[in-house]
Automatic annotation (TrEMBL):
GO biological process, one term: response to antibiotic
Keyword Signal in record: no
Protein known as: Bleomycin resistance protein
UniProt keywords, alphabetically: Antibiotic resistance
């Protein structure tokens, strides 16, 4: 994360995560059984960031609709769709362009 305030706002307000701990340059967040750890990296260039996380869920349609209602930007190349590998998925980018893909098995 480049900016802890922006990261917290996005994950807490937009994605409904909760804060586990904040150790200054290290941040721990949770949603359900998912826990994500962030470390401060002020020099990170979002345009070259290739960080990505795949999060499995059992309520993909409801979660997608919730994000649309909150006006969270879905990645333009990754709206909710069924994939050939048997998953229903969508993706979005966090403030530092970490790719978050949410998927549910069919």
């Amino acid at each position: 994360m480049r900016n802890k305030t922006a990261t917290k706002k996005f994950y807490l307000d937009d994605l409904n995560f909760t804060e586990i701990a904040d150790y200054g340059d290290y941040l721990l967040l949770r949603k359900d059984d998912i826990e994500i750890h962030f470390f401060e990296f002020k020099e990170l260039d979002p345009k070259t960031n290739y960080g990505q996380v795949y999060i499995r869920t059992n309520n993909i349609d409801e979660w997608y609709q919730t994000l649309l209602e909150k006006k969270v930007l879905i990645h333009p190349n990754a709206p909710l769709q069924v994939k050939p590998w048997g998953q229903k998925e969508f993706s979005l980018l966090d403030p530092d362009h970490n790719l978050l893909t949410f998927g549910q098995s069919l």
